[in-house]
Amino acid sequence: MQYYQNGFKPGDPTDFRATADSAATQLLVDLPEAVDVLIVGCGPAGLVLAAQLAAFPEISTRIVERKPGPLMMGQADGISARSTEIFQSFGFADRVLKEAHFLEAITFWQHAAEKPDQIVRTSKKADGRNVFSEFPHVVLNQARVHHFLLDVMQKSRSQLSPDYCRNLIGLEHQKTPRDARSGDCYPTRVSLARTDPDHEGQTEVVAAQYVVGCDGARSTVRQLLNLEMRGDSANKAWGVMDLLLVTDFPDIRNKSIIQSANEGNLLIIPREGGHLVRFYVEMDKLKGSERASNRNITVEQLISAAGRILHPYTIDVKEVVWWSVYEIGQRLCDCFANISPQDSDSGPPNVFIVGDACHTHSPKAGQGMNVSMHDSFNLGWKLASVIRGHSSPEILHSYAAERRAVAEELLAFDRELATMFSVQEDSSLEQGDRLEATRLQQYMVKHDGYVSGTLTRYPTSQIVAEPAHQALASGFEVGKRFHSSPVVRLADARPIHLGHVLEADGRWRIVAFSNREDPTGDSTGIRRLAEFLHNAAESPVKRYTPAGSDIDAVIELLVVFQQGYRDINMQELPAFLSPSKGVYGLRDYNKVFCPDVDKGNDIFDERDVNRGKGCIVVVRPDQHVANILPFDGFADLAAFFDRFMIMQD
Amino acid sequence: MQYYQNGFKPGDPTDFRATADSAATQLLVDLPEAVDVLIVGCGPAGLVLAAQLAAFPEISTRIVERKPGPLMMGQADGISARSTEIFQSFGFADRVLKEAHFLEAITFWQHAAEKPDQIVRTSKKADGRNVFSEFPHVVLNQARVHHFLLDVMQKSRSQLSPDYCRNLIGLEHQKTPRDARSGDCYPTRVSLARTDPDHEGQTEVVAAQYVVGCDGARSTVRQLLNLEMRGDSANKAWGVMDLLLVTDFPDIRNKSIIQSANEGNLLIIPREGGHLVRFYVEMDKLKGSERASNRNITVEQLISAAGRILHPYTIDVKEVVWWSVYEIGQRLCDCFANISPQDSDSGPPNVFIVGDACHTHSPKAGQGMNVSMHDSFNLGWKLASVIRGHSSPEILHSYAAERRAVAEELLAFDRELATMFSVQEDSSLEQGDRLEATRLQQYMVKHDGYVSGTLTRYPTSQIVAEPAHQALASGFEVGKRFHSSPVVRLADARPIHLGHVLEADGRWRIVAFSNREDPTGDSTGIRRLAEFLHNAAESPVKRYTPAGSDIDAVIELLVVFQQGYRDINMQELPAFLSPSKGVYGLRDYNKVFCPDVDKGNDIFDERDVNRGKGCIVVVRPDQHVANILPFDGFADLAAFFDRFMIMQD
Description:
The structure is a homodimer. Helix content of chain A is 24%, strand content 23%. By secondary structure, chain A is of the alpha+beta class. The first copy, chain A, folds into 3 domains: 17-74 and 143-230 and 332-404, 3-Layer(bba) Sandwich (FAD/NAD(P)-binding domain), CATH 3.50.50.60; 101-134 and 233-328 and 423-442, D-Amino Acid Oxidase, Chain A, domain 2; 470-642, Glutaredoxin. The first copy, chain A, has a 7-stranded mixed beta sheet with strand order 6-5-13-14-15-12-16, with helices on both faces. Chain A has a 7-stranded mixed beta sheet with strand order 21-20-26-23-22-27-28. In chain A, strands 1, 2, 8, 9, 10 and 18 form a 6-stranded mixed beta sheet that branches. In chain A, a hairpin with a 5-residue loop joins strand 13 (255-259) and strand 14 (265-270). The longest helix of chain A is centred in the middle third of the chain and has 26 residues, at 397-422. The radius of gyration of chain A is 26 Å and the shape is globular. At the A-B interface, strand 4, strand 6, strand 12, strand 24 and strand 25 of A face strand 4, strand 6, strand 12, strand 24 and strand 25 of B.
């Protein structure tokens, strides 16, 4: 899609109506007296959490925001492959990919050896980040991501919408009488000052079972919890601009890193619609008077600096869509919740901070929006599972344990990258040597996987088993996200991505990779597994599925056979593999898969699954692999779920 | 996506709000006194035409419909590859593919040789229709296609919505004074009876420049034009049902053709959402009393017949979503407009009939909705071009000429297919022989391409040149639709489908495939072509682009080079290849492409383009190839457009 040719316009680029996406129509209603979860802040972290919780209408969720309506432009734009996988699980990856700009190539530019006042391209290559996932690395205005998440929330069974014009002013813990309905209590009282003209001066008090601060780098929730950010103070200032411009710079539609001899560095990120482009301008090299104080910097100064760096190419800026100056160091909060994992004797936490509220870093690695969303995607299913009475509240400690390690890693990466960006390369190198040799370039290539967001590995815990049987499927690493691969659905021969069956619906999955045997026999492994899950007293499906729910409501069995789709008759498989569900008892045919042999995609090869033995891969609701077990490891399978799940009637 | 598990629900399956897609909120406003185009009927034909015309806010279009609101369920469901290509050009193919069921495999069942009361599968194979296009053959409720088209209309610059509750009652031709605004006149007066409670008894009269009857098999427009349908009377009755059911039939999620020994024939089309299924039941074999009159047939009788055909498998129907009985012969109208192409001395036509209004046939080939949409996609750009003053009104004769031939071909196909379906196979054949040999199966495989809708070839005419230079690119056949192929966009290295650049925006395209030479030189072929189009007095771009419009507003140049994207610098190409456009003069980088050598997709090989000579492919606004010329065939290029276009100031 090509758009913004005649200027930037917020909202759906395919919608030409003047009134589309107007923030003015937001409904302002009073908050209820008590909620299960109160989310503070409508950034990417808050909205991912809200979208996740909205899937469960039995959980009362509200999300409050200081601003009067949705974000319309600016801020983050990088969307990692892992984020798009998560969007897929919410059902809107297609919408992101349709609008986004794809970063297919990356170019590096430096000053010419002979003419230090001119830049020359040293390298143009395919972006190496596009091999870690079925999804590419793309860029899209953060406001559009918000819009898609808001759409998921609004169309959900909970019909959740943000409550705008609310300023958090107080957070008190106090034990209240237990609520008769759920046996839970609402121990935290949140005070909110209303800021819209009709309610100005009014304060609302909401009792909440859980409070999640997604309120950014200056988080009020964090301050009210008396948690402190530690780390480097601002160590680097950059200017960032979203521009519509005319230029003769040849790589204006490619991600380009430009290191000039004397004018500083520039990072160019082409953006959605074919015209918009983002410039990151290093501010150290701004002329003295320009740099006097970052706060007095004008966008004209940033444009002028970018022009000097790009010499001999020129830019003619037609519209500044958004711009900002940032000076952010790498800072991290000791604890991501009101009770730290080390202090687990004090009971489970019930107030959390997420995203920028607990870690800040520079935007250069394109991780800002992503890591924040991954934080709350980690927390969301846990909160839902605990509130719905499926899991022990102790699992809530794993949020801080898992995500703080990710944040530490991110800060180390960002610190190193920021340094790399600013170090001048040795200009005495000959052109030929420099072509492939710049350290920044090498560093970035080395970390393509990290930046894709797909390599995060959660350590062994209550909800991540020791990888004792990792060798049975080395392509599904315990602790990492389930790496999707193409398969064919047996029932209708449709090629699909197996990972896309793992929707963000709070369910655990047991993905069973069968061994070579004909699965339609009478005493096959798959029949024994189905029999165990369906009937055994120790079966986690039996133990942890509430009475009256569909058989797959809490734990879903997915099966992948080695035979092609023409070689297996659906009806000869155990009925448990296409269970009867819903009010009519219709059979669910979305659970049995085969390798896509026609296209040459064999998931057993691609993920190195032991063909002779097969295996069981246990996948968490956030798609991280929790356990790998032998195909007949029924006792271990039961024991794993027994660690944290709550027996149902 | 999996949905309808707890029963069918009209509207967006991702929207869980109760009020979604309500027909009750339709606004009823008065029609204007005069319009450029009045479309009668909100079926697929009418909506495609409306969506096309809505792209041009300078054209006043209205679409009226007898019913009180949008279709909510039932009717057609087959979507051919060509239709999805057209949806792509409107920007919503992704939405169709996300919701649709993919017909990946097809199975054939017959009665067992030994047990004639039981059916056995004789064949299960990949659906052969998925090789003619980048898009597959899918099925989706017609109501959803309507919804997407309505969405295009509503979000367009024209903000077009249907006017419901209007019954066409009169159509008079009378010359009226010329309209000062456009120099056009509104020669047809249309009378409409309003049927909503607030306006019942009122008649509106609208003067229209053009009237298009998309009002179905019982078309009032056709009757008011005194045009008659000719052809076979009803020759075959079938019952059709959309069901939610439980069955042990193994291929319930695959397209299945079942020919029983004594109980008749059944066609099963699995549908969107993983549960819904359509049954077509042949009615000849219904028991005597059931068949007494088709009008008295009950759905229980159809279900019972389907159950008998499927024996020994059983069905347990849980919900009948929609059902109907149809008895339709192959009928065709002599003329598709008020003035036939043979009568061109009488001037151009200004009243047209489209889709079922001019041709009817059985739904078994899955062509119903498709051919109707292709009819109006053929007509839409021509009307727009004439009304906007770009083309001579004479081109309007080509609608009937081109589409009546398609309809004739369709009726012949449908007649033969209907016969095939009902003929009993010779049951004395051994099982092995029958496996691959049934005539129906052979017939269907042979006609996969036809059914995909991609093989339609328009004959030589004012707007389709003689294929004198076809050998330069035998994969782009003159008269057929431009067959897309993957390329890489030079500016940002993004892999895209070249055909997807050809949006439904009324523009002609000149797609120039360059020869092997380095395109960045001073006197290259591409430079000469750009120079000709940009500056020559005979250039069709110069002659036919209105002053003040973007240079590519009427005719767009697209260029495909043979070099990879790393081998060409955008800035060394003629500026005409990335022209300045819009209020800011931003450069359009969406016009230059390279083979996708990294993925091994070379469009020159795939479409058999002459590498030594290159060529020019002229593509109509409806994506049909109008001409193929040598790369330097400037005079012929100019002469082709001179045949039908109108010189601009």
